[in-house]
Design goal:
The protein has 306 residues and is of the alpha/beta class. The protein contains seven helices and six strands, in the order H-H-E-E-E-H-E-H-E-H-H-E-H. It has a six-stranded mixed β-sheet with strand order 1-2-4-3-5-6, sandwiched between helices. The chain starts with 21 loop residues before the first helix and ends in a 5-residue tail after the last helix.
Length: 306
């Protein structure tokens, strides 16, 4: 529509990079786990959704919930909501931070109770928690650049059968075809998935290298300069179907996936099992990821070359 105000260029203002607080981040993570099993179409999922919307609003973000319905691989109709938060919504220069907040409805990789849901402390809660702490730092240490946050829904209700890639990431598939704003632009996006486990390693993932190669190299160099090289490893990984893939396929936004993948290409042994609980979470991993993401956002806002 023509009465939409034009975006304004960000003002030139240098802001020092704040210290990421892993204790605060952990509290955001723990709160999600306390809601219970947050898989699709459950009251626990709805309670977590409401809390996430309220949390972003209380941190000064304008929040646009994007409701959608999707059909799962098993024929179930999923009632989903992508939670979109906007910081400095009128500013033209923007960066996108994403994670999924729903959890797996079955422990299909476990040896017991495979039909029971999982807690999703890492796979779900960790990425959301890091972004909430980044949002808290933005409120306390304002920058002139715009930041968009998306907590995607219905990422993890997929089928593990070969060839069923598009049964995953239903929320990001929906958003990438129904973007919340006409002519939406972001410099690039960072997706966080499974970023809280002890001993995590984040290699340079395939779709990320393909769509945002320069940014990947830049951020991993920054991480290594910040002495987080044991987490942000200089190793190439294969192509992983995650929310970023659908954004790459359906938009022109370069996307980076920070995802814990072992040297053999596998996810952690807790993945989609009942072991994905608070016991595997390590504040040092959260600190590494959070501080790197925070530094990236502030350096972009400061227009620094890095």
């Amino acid at each position: 529509d023509n009465d939409k105000p034009d975006k304004i260029p960000q003002e030139d203002l240098q802001v020092a990079i704040p210290q990421f607080n892993a204790d605060s981040c952990y509290a955001f993570l723990e709160q999600q786990v306390k809601f219970g099993y947050r898989y699709m179409n459950t009251v626990e999922h709805e309670n977590c959704k409401s809390w996430l919307i309220e949390s972003l609003q209380s941190l000064g973000f304008e929040v646009l919930p994007q409701a959608f319905t999707a059909t799962a691989y098993n024929g179930l109709t999923l009632e989903g909501t992508n939670i979109i938060g906007r910081y400095n919504p009128r500013v033209k220069e923007r960066i996108l931070l994403c994670a999924h907040y729903d959890t797996r409805h079955i422990a299909d990789k476990d040896s017991t109770a495979t039909d029971r849901p999982i807690e999703g402390a890492d796979d779900g809660a960790s990425g959301v928690a890091v972004i909430l702490e980044v949002a808290r730092q933005l409120q306390n240490n304002p920058i002139p650049m715009g930041v968009d946050v998306i907590f995607f829904d219905a990422e993890d209700y997929g089928s593990d059968q070969a060839g069923d890639d598009y049964s995953w990431g239903l929320g990001s598939q929906y958003w990438s075809k129904n973007i919340h704003e006409e002519d939406y632009e972001a410099k690039y996006g960072i997706l966080l998935d499974m970023v809280g486990a002890r001993g995590a390693t984040f290699p340079k993932e395939g779709f990320s290298r393909q769509s945002a190669g320069e940014e990947v190299d830049k951020i991993w160099r920054l991480a290594q300069a910040m002495r987080f090289g044991k987490y942000f490893v200089n190793r190439h990984a294969g192509f992983y179907t995650d929310d970023h893939r659908f954004i790459v396929e359906n938009t022109s936004i370069p996307m980076i996936d920070v995802i814990n993948v072992k040297a053999n290409g596998a996810f952690g042994n807790y993945h989609h099992t009942h072991a994905d609980n608070l016991d595997i979470i390590d504040k040092q991993t959260l600190q590494a990821v959070g501080q790197v993401v925070l530094a990236t956002v502030y350096k972009e806002s400061n227009k620094e070359r890095f």
